[in-house]
Input
Amino acid sequence: MPTNTQNPTRGPLAGIKVVEFAGIGPGPFCGMLLADMGAEVTLLERAGGTFASQLFGGGRKAVANRGKKSLCIDLKHPEAKALVFKLIEGADVLIEGFRPGVMERLGFGPDECLARNPRLIYGRMTGWGQTGPLAPRAGHDANYAAIAGVLDTGRRHGGAPWAPPTLVGDMGGGGLMLAWGIACALIETQRSGKGQVIDAAMCEGAAVLAHGLFNLEALGEWKGQCAIDSSAPFYDVYQCADGEWISVCPLEPQFYKTFVERLNLVGDPDFSGKQYDTTTWPAMKDRLTAIFKAQPRAHWTALFDDTDDCVWPVLSMTDAPAHPHNIAREAFADVAGVLQPTPAPRLSRTPGTIQSPPPLLGEHSRERLAALGLSSEEIERLATAGVVSDPVVL
Output
């Protein structure tokens, strides 16, 4: 497994300069995606860190900050504003994830920034969007997915609605959508020479991720008798004898046919009906539950290892990096002692890379200011005055 993915290859966003106001969740994830693809991301952090650094750990453990340069700066200090605007004037993209109105109160709203840099792509990441009755309200991933109608789709067999934490609203519906919007806006800017503001709302992004489920809802095929909502016996997870789990998904008739054959269920009364006859599903599920419970996961993994029956082990985050496929693809890497996913997707000519480990708080404060043309004496004065701070290990 690779321990260092840094290389001299320039990604597709090489030369793009990003200013990211430190936040939590989707905003940092968006910045990470851009950094992975070669962008130069300057992270504006405050002394003491943020709630994100308390929750996920700061410094080298903050995976979402990999590849970024940390400038620790007091945004409320009178002398900070000119420094931040100088960064923004030379930037292509700005990312912020505060509630609506906060950036305006800080003096860095879209109007002020675009007046100084008309080509700037101003990315705004919120849960509810910049407008609407919920815009000023607080929320978290499950809340955004709930209002989008997506959390309800996470029910298993009529149980309580739920979904994998932070994936639907924060990361997929939020950070990923904002990165997509930024990529689109960067292309448009090449034609128009003008920047624009991106209003990325996690609740709306979550709904877009679930477009296929809304498709099934329109057809009257969602919930209770749907092949992919955990109702079908051939699209579910089953516990094995050792307490581990196996995922079973032979949706297509040809895969289902060989799946039944491998389990020696051809001719079995419970499996003699048609695959999509929902009246037989409860009995089939009971049988499969008992069958998979009779042997450890390794037995089932070996049994289906050479088939297209779509039966695969449910791996933990500890086990996944050691899977032969993930090793062959170098899908995970150890960066500064933290095991983490490598950049995706893969580009053939200008692939992404982890440019550097996550920075310590303020690790690049002096470097970033020097890049703006400030003298060492001026930088020292700003540090002494508390406008900027030197590296801190959280």
Remarks:
- The radius of gyration is 25 Å.
